[in-house]
Amino acid sequence: MLELLKPITWFAPMWAFGCGVVSSGVPISERWLVMVAGIVLAGPMVTATSQAANDWYDRHVDAINEPNRPIPSGRIPGRWGLYIALIWTALSLVLASFLGIWVFWAAVVGLILAWAYSAPPFRLKKNGWWGNSAVAACYEGLPWFTGAAVMVGGLPDWRIITLAALYSLGAHGIMTLNDFKAVEGDLKMGIRSLPAQLGVARAARFACFVMAFPQVIVIALLFSWGKPIYAAAVCVSLLVQFALMARLLREPKEQAAWYNATGTTLYVLGMLISAFALRTIGA
Length: 283
Known about the structure:
Keywords: Cell membrane, Chlorophyll biosynthesis, Membrane, Transferase, Transmembrane, Transmembrane helix. GO terms for molecular function: chlorophyll synthetase activity. The chain has 283 residues and is mainly α. The protein has two domains: 1-155, Orthogonal Bundle (Tetracycline Repressor, domain 2); 157-283, Four Helix Bundle (Hemerythrin (Met), subunit A) (Up-down Bundle), CATH 1.20.120. It is 78% helix and 0% strand. The protein has helices at 2-5, 11-24, 32-57, 59-65, 80-97, 101-118, 128-152, 158-178, 183-189, 194-198, 200-224, 228-250, 252-280. It is flat, with a radius of gyration of 19 Å.
């Protein structure tokens, strides 16, 4: 069951949730219990739900490509993969209901996207434009919003929402890079990932643009909000990303995993820097 829920996937939304906590400007000591509950909601509950649902609806393909996974291997028998996803959905909503109305509705949106990503009739994962948008929102924007909402006990400041949305947009490019490893399989299975639709080279250029452009806006906003040091730090991070992107664009398929370990790390560090900038202006 733990393998089905994939703890390794929980890190990204938990990081974004942490950025939301920091950006709120509320001392952790004042609301540490609800913060812990929010971390559990972001990672072990909502993200884990998405993983269970995805494995259930992918069980026939996994039986061919990855037969050792919990469901196709029979280690989770019958329809228990579906039951676990449904139970985790219900538990996520129960937990979210104790954390405030804005957190509850953020969880509802996240869970709807999680199911729509994998389940028919929507099955957003079959098209890179929609699927990547859903994952980016669930991994970056919604957890950031939730982290801030948990701490302030209501609707976060508009600057928090703006940066959360921008970094969520940029994460669409990160999701595109994750599709490079399965281009041939996607073409055979009729999955319209962006590398399958646009070709590897064009998809790589698009991913780089989508990752970089929101960060440029973040830098401009931080300058306009009177935080030049934080803006400069994000700018340095972006310049290094540009240098790494040059290597990525030469061999996108071969270098995508390497870029995710380097450039994406700088991207999420920029998120945290931006969160600290918001904290210092009382957002």
